[in-house]
Amino acid sequence: MKAVQEGAAFSEEEFEGVLYVAKHLLPGGVTRSHIQKFEYMMGNLKMDAELVEFLLDYCASIEKTAPRYMESVALNWHEQGIKTVKEARELIQNFQLTKKGAEERPCKAERKE
């Protein structure tokens, strides 16, 4: 299957690398929809293969591997100017700290006044 279109901003070799990682991380296998999302991430959003592979790993680690969810994460990172794995890792860590802090604070209904 030749997924990479002529004139794409990424090489077929890079794309094959992403598919290799996806095959090992996605529990239901790689679907046509996944392939289309990876092409979109690398072509339209200009994400490099390393960042897409990191996104795959992140989504698999939280057990959210639906193509639409992964696309939403990619769009969020793109809107925030995330271009490297280091930046993505920092964003995730900050998000987890924020989320953890919110979980530790009781909501108004749980507070005893």
In short:
This protein has 113 residues and is mainly alpha-helical. 64% of the residues lie in helices and 0% in strands.
Question: What are the salient characteristics of this protein?
Answer:
mainly alpha, 113 residues, globular, single chain
Explain this structure:
By secondary structure, the protein is an all-alpha fold. The chain is 64% helix and 0% strand. It contains 5 helices and no strands. The radius of gyration is 17 Å and the shape is globular. The chain starts with 11 loop residues before the first helix and ends in a 9-residue tail after the last helix. 20% of the residues are buried.
Give the amount of beta strand, in percent. Answer: under 5%
- Approximate helicity band: 55-70%
- Quote the average pLDDT: 87
Shape: globular
> Which sequence of SSEs, written as H and E, runs from N to C?
HHHHH
Number of helices: 5
Question: Quick one: biggest sheet?
Answer: none
Question: What would you report as the Rg, rounded to the nearest angstrom?
Answer: 17 Å
- Structural category: mainly alpha
**Could you list the spans in which at least 5 consecutive residues all have pLDDT below 50?**
none
Q: What's the count of strands?
A: 0
Q: For the record, give the distance between the C-alpha atoms at the N and C termini, rounded to a whole number.
A: 64 Å
